[in-house]
Design brief:
Radius of gyration: 33 Å
InterPro entries: Glyco_trans_1, Glyco_trans_2-like, Glycosyltransf_2, Nucleotide-diphossugar_trans
Number of domains: 3
Pfam families: Glycos_transf_1, Glycos_transf_2
GO molecular function: glycosyltransferase activity
Number of helices: 30
Largest sheet: 8 strands, mixed
Structural class: alpha/beta
Protein name: Glycosyltransferase
Enzyme class: transferase
Number of strands: 22
């Protein structure tokens, strides 16, 4: 229940009402079958509930469940069809009545009650289909009950246990990797199974100062805390034997003394025999409770050690340990079957109960040292808390990713904004995305993806979101790199759009960059172009503000020449998506498998490849989808991009070198660069930019879509003769390379470079005729071609462009023009 409360708190914070069925109508061996709720304590945001009408199902009683369990023990599948059907009806009726949108199942695979487990599967299938829901069920078999007690449930492959199913409505979770492995060993065909570890939530309030006084514990007395059910399997007697070896220490036992009166009496007698100070504190409020009563948090605030010396054969994963980690209290434990799997990396004295049933003097010495050595205690607490915080963040991210907040019914556009340390810029960027003309703020949202920022970017964005008419979702992506962040944001938006009733209209994913500002009609014009042409991808225009380049005429001229070329080719071919601002229709995005991250080796380690936007566009275009250009949709580029990269371009390193294209951190300059380029530097910058531009923007489109060469405007641009010869040569190269290249990262570079080098003089002639004489002539060829005979030029171009060991072609073309 504790893990359920932690998981569902995030949903409650999103506005969901949380109803909890404690399962008294499921298991017969707890002595609570059909029992009314009486003194159960849950946070005030939780409503205790149960399935309506279960008690009225004929034949469904404790005897029925007991008989079911007997059948399981004999490996027989009992006849439960009638009861199963009526249980499923009752569950569906209850969900309909409550308006259920999400279901969390804890320990759902219960072999002793086959009827209820089957009914739950039936109800999920019926309810999910009726309401067109996606994976609305979070199903966690926390204790792997079907394999944890073989004497009760039988052995592998558990023939009488209801099998887990590949439902389109269920996402399964295991507690750790070993539980996942065991689950897949039993159900190897199972999909949608992830690891959701225990979480460690810090206290929401400080402990009450009067806790010791109210329980009669002296201020100088050390406290070992034990909060658990008081039953023989929990082996609380071990704690009594431990405390007997620790002078000045008392044992505080928080639990229901009436659940097993005989065990409570036995423990009281043992405490008296050992002369151990012990406090039976009764049932405390849950850690999450904010009531006036004492809670587990109050105990933790005063405890020196939290104990979990449970038995070896009683499989439990120890919420007490999790609460200790969260509260910053050291813990001790016994090495039960999966302890090292669940708590790998955490530090604590661990009693090996296969060798020693009771605490040894050496174990007691280690516990005493941890309680009294302040430096050692602080080290252990800091280590465990750091590891616990990471585990909690992993679990929170997984739940948020798979079960994202509900999307507004009117939203048709999700703008994905990757960010990294943009505190100085993020307000202005969000303001430009918010202030869009002629579009209802309720029809689009912003998904801000924080990529491990170390400044105040996220805090500033959250404050902005509080007063924004546009819904702003903030998520995080741990793997560094803008491509990884862009993919995470788009996947998040796709899932949220799929989790609602889809009215059927086209849904769009927009990409924006955190250091650029969009014009007021960026969204409107991009959406209009996408709708008009029914395109899969929409590409906007971009520009630089002349005010940022005052006094730098040579640099400004080089920039403008590149953008003039871009305007011509984009009007002809539609261009390719650029992370600074593009749109993709959801169905096309999913059709090509979304954004793929490519990796390259740099200095002995893997780095992710930067050109995810271009690679994605190539996959979309190569799959037969259309791309449209929206010239009135504009993005202003931050000049810091030019200022940061210009030195690398001038020195010939460009966007990485030797075939490696990596993301660099582009920070604002202090003070801003104001010095113009020399004539030689301007020429170098222009040549790198045009060498990058021409293969990508003039050749690549017709390489991917040769039918462009049949269009009148394209034929007019190239001229009939050149268009014809280009088409023939593309067909030859495609046939020649059909089995050579497989990934977009190479499949567009090599043939584009080859065609550029073979046709460069003619293509530049057409650019001069169309764009202007100042475009000039092709940059000089690499020196390696000086000795190549003209008759063998195309042959050696092939070797040059395919030489990926040295990366010579990459270094020549720059692979990312600075403009």
């Amino acid at each position: 229940m504790v893990e359920f409360l932690k998981t569902t708190k995030s949903f409650a914070d999103q506005g969901y009402r949380v109803h909890l069925d404690l399962g008294y109508d499921i298991k017969a061996d707890k002595g609570r079958f059909f029992q009314d709720y009486r003194h159960e304590r849950v946070p005030d945001w939780v409503t205790l509930d149960r399935v309506d009408g279960v008690a009225r199902i004929a034949g469904y009683d404790r005897e029925f469940v007991a008989a079911t369990l007997e059948s399981v023990r004999s490996n027989e599948l009992p006849d439960t069809d009638r009861v199963t059907a009526e249980l499923a009806d009752a569950i569906v009726r209850t969900w309909e009545d409550r308006g259920v949108a999400l279901v969390v199942v804890e320990n759902g695979t219960l072999p002793e009650n086959v009827a209820y487990t089957k009914a739950l599967y039936q109800a999920i299938a019926r309810y999910g289909a009726a309401h067109e829901l996606g994976r609305f069920v979070l199903w966690r078999d926390h204790d792997l009950m079907w394999q944890s007690e073989p004497a009760k449930y039988g052995s592998f492959p558990y023939p009488a246990t209801p099998p887990m199913v590949n439902s389109p409505h269920i996402h399964y979770f295991a507690l750790h990797g070993e539980a996942k492995r065991r689950t897949l060993e039993w159900m190897p065909q199972l999909r949608n199974l992830d690891v959701l570890p225990n979480t460690f939530t810090p206290p929401i309030r400080p402990g009450r100062l009067d806790f010791r006084e109210r329980h009669g514990i002296a201020p100088d007395m050390k406290i070992i805390a034990r909060f658990t059910r008081i039953i023989p399997q929990k082996r609380i007697d071990r704690d009594l034997h431990l405390v007997a070896q620790l002078p000045g220490t008392c044992l505080f036992i928080a639990g229901d003394t009436e659940e097993n009166p005989a065990e409570t009496a036995k423990l009281r007698a043992l405490a008296e025999e050992l002369q151990v100070p012990v406090v039976f504190g009764g049932v405390l409020e849950p850690c999450e409770s904010a009531s006036e009563e004492f809670s587990v948090r109050d105990l933790l605030a005063h405890a020196d050690i939290v104990s979990f010396l449970t038995s070896y054969d009683y499989e439990s994963y120890g919420n007490p340990i999790g609460e200790a980690i969260a509260a910053g209290v050291p813990y001790i434990a016994s090495r039960y079957a999966l302890y090292d799997t669940v708590y790998a990396g955490f530090e604590a004295p661990v009693l090996d109960i296969l060798e020693h049933d009771l605490p040894t003097p050496e174990f007691a010495r280690r516990v005493h040292d941890l309680m009294t050595n302040a430096e050692r205690r602080a080290e252990v607490v800091a280590h465990n808390r750091q590891l616990g915080t990471h585990t909690r963040e992993v679990a929170d991210e997984l739940v948020t990713t798979l079960y994202p907040p509900a999307m507004g019914a009117q939203v048709r556009l999700s703008v994905v904004l990757p960010v990294y340390n943009e505190a100085a810029n993020i307000d202005a960027v969000l303001l430009s995305l918010q202030n869009q003309d002629d579009i209802d703020p309720s029809t689009y949202e912003i998904v801000l993806v924080d990529n491990n920022s170390t400044d105040d970017t996220v805090e500033i964005a959250r404050r902005f979101a509080e007063n924004s008419p546009v819904d702003i979702q903030v998520i995080s992506e741990r793997e560094q790199g803008v491509a990884c962040a862009r993919r995470a944001g788009m996947e998040f938006a796709v899932r949220r759009s799929r989790n609602r009733k889809d009215p059927g209209e086209r849904f769009y994913l927009m990409s924006a960059d955190a250091d650029c500002r969009v014009d007021r009609r960026w969204l409107t014009e991009l959406l209009a172009a996408m709708e008009k042409d029914k395109a899969a991808i929409g590409v906007c225009d971009y520009y630089y503000n002349a005010e940022h380049f005052v006094g730098r005429p040579r640099l400004w001229d080089a920039i403008q020449r590149t953008l003039r070329c871009r305007a011509v080719t984009f009007s002809l071919f539609g261009g390719f998506p650029d992370g600074k601002g593009f749109a993709v229709e959801r169905e096309a995005y999913e059709d090509v498998g979304g954004i793929e991250i490519f990796y390259q080796l740099q200095h002995g380690r893997f780095v992710n490849h930067l050109s995810d936007d271009w690679d994605f566009g190539i996959r979309v275009a190569g799959s037969g989808h259309d791309i449209t250009y929206a010239p009135k949709s504009k993005v202003e580029i931050n000049p810091r991009r030019v200022n940061h990269a210009i030195d690398e371009v001038i020195t010939g390193r460009a966007y990485g070198n030797d075939g490696i294209i990596v993301m660099r951190d582009i920070r604002p300059e202090a003070p801003p660069v104001t010095v113009d380029l020399t004539e030689a530097e301007a020429l170098q910058a222009w040549e790198f930019s045009i060498k990058d531009f021409t293969p990508k923007n003039t050749i690549l489109p017709v390489l991917l879509t040769p039918s462009f060469l049949d269009e009148d405007a394209v034929v007019e641009f190239f001229g009939e003769d050149l268009a014809h010869r280009l088409g023939e040569r593309i067909a030859e190269i495609k046939a020649e390379m059909s089995v050579t290249d497989f990934l977009p990262i190479h499949s567009y570079k090599t043939p584009s470079y080859r065609l550029y080098l073979e046709f460069r003089d003619e293509i530049f002639a057409r650019l001069r005729a169309t764009v202007g004489e100042d475009i000039g002539f092709p940059p000089p060829l690499p020196e390696c071609f000086d000795s190549v005979p003209a008759a063998r030029f195309a042959e050696f171009v092939k070797y040059y462009c395919e030489d990926r060991e040295s990366g010579e072609a990459h270094n020549y073309f720059g692979n990312g023009g600075v403009f």
